[in-house]
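Quick entry between incubations.
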Amino acid sequence: MRPAWFRDTSPWLLCVLFLTLYSSQAAAQAAETPLLAALQHAAHQDAPYRQAVYVYLRLAGLFWIAVEWIAAVLLWRGYRLLAAAARRLEEKR
Amino acid sequence: MMQDAILWLGKHFSAEQYLYYTRIQCLAWTAADLVLVFYLLRLANLARRILDYRPHRLSYAVLAATVSFVPFIASAGTGGLIFALELLVTAPHFLIILYVIVADFRSFPRALSRLLTPTGAGEAPDEPGAPCPGC
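Done. Structure below.
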């Protein structure tokens, strides 16, 4: 008599085992096929364009940093102006 | 010509360089964030001082705590680590900004109005017990 846990899990374990073995065998076969080599070649051909996208993101980042620094300087100057106004108000009182 | 430029950029921009510039950019915008949030808090406290409200103190402590993570960004070895550190630093900053906007949504215009009024009285306070310098 098989235990209940084995009866419940064994179909799943079999499926996982089958998929693992099958996929590893398929991957091993695909590594030798010209199709995979062609796909890898295409991926390498595309690499400069992907890098160019990264450069674009980099430039967009520079733009965003500039925006943040402009906002920071505006806040700093705004604070100085309002603090001076508040001091004048306190002196008037 | 554009294609050549893209290809040139792509070939002269390696993953290591990308990580290096990511660190520099991350430090640049984190520093900007720190200045921005610091002066936002100072502005909010100025408005609260004009209205005789209690100043923000906990937000300063949170801001100071985030500064401690900044040096680690310069030495972070992977993009994932930089991202995690950036989250630790900027997420509290965004929360502080949100908190200040919500907490001082009404007090800031009121303080500004008091500053801009020649007598310094500004808008009459509508809360019971609130100080009224013009009265």
